[in-house]
Amino acid sequence: MDPRANSEAKIIPPEPLPFVSRRALRRVTDWMAPPEQCPNCGKVVELVSNSEIYGREFGDWPYAYRCIDHRGCDSYVGLHPNTDLPLGKLADSFERQARKDNKRYFMDVLSRQNWSRNQAYAWLAQRMGIPESECHWGLFSVRQAHMAGAICKEALEES
Ligand SMILES: [Zn+2]
Fold first, then answer.
1. CA 20 to 30 Å from 71, out of 6, 53, 65, 104?
2. 3-state SS, residue 6
3. Residue 132 Cα to chain centre, angstroms
4. Spatial CA neighbour of 60 closest among 132, 159, 142, 151
5. pLDDT value at residue 159
6. Torsion-angle region of 114 (φ positive above 0: left; ψ -120 to 50: alpha; else: beta)
7. Domain locations in the chain as residue ranges
8. With contact defined as beta carbons under 8 Å apart, do 77 and 88 qualify?
9. Using CA atoms, how far apart are residues 28 and 3, in angstroms rounded to an integer?
């Protein structure tokens, strides 16, 4: 668990976060320290609004850790809601490719079921056994992307 979760000291949020919630820190069971160096290229990591990545803010907690080498490495990862803690390792281009390859099955399920994106994510999160807040193609690891793809393919075959 995060060392600040049970301390009395006031938590000063790093820019650009508006706050860091102690209760939210306690909820994070798969704790990883905020990254300073990119695991994929060794360059510095910045904490940014995810609008810098997606073109608009995505989600209720629209922030990400991003490698400063935007053009080359371009690794990034989202945050656990209401914290400054990363959801996992910064994702590289292999992860992004795995997401891209598998996302089309998700989009097929969505249109076949006539679901909204939120409905589809709620379904997928439940099938994958992860919180809805962490269920997003932009956040999936290679393994999660393949898992999500397999779940969606199966659903398409069944329907
Ligand atoms: Zn990097």
1. 104
2. coil
3. 10
4. 132
5. 74
6. left
7. 1-90, 93-158
8. yes
9. 11
Instruction: With 0.85 as the threshold, say if the pTM is over it.
Output: no
Q: Which pLDDT tens digit goes with each residue over 59-83?
A: 999 999 999 999 999 999 999 999 9
Q: How far is the CA of 59 from the centre of ligand 1 (A)?
A: 24
* Between 116 and 139, residue with greater pLDDT: 116
Cα of 153 vs centre of ligand 1, distance in Å, is 32
* Cα of 40 from ligand 1 centre, angstroms: 5
Name residue 44's beta-bridge partners.
37
CA dist 92 and 40 (Å) reads 7
Residue 78, strand partner residues: 64
pLDDT digits (tens, 9 = 90+) for 86-111: 988 898 888 888 998 999 999 999 99
**Does residue 133 have a pLDDT over 90?**
no
The whole-angstrom separation of Cα 128 and Cα 126 is: 5
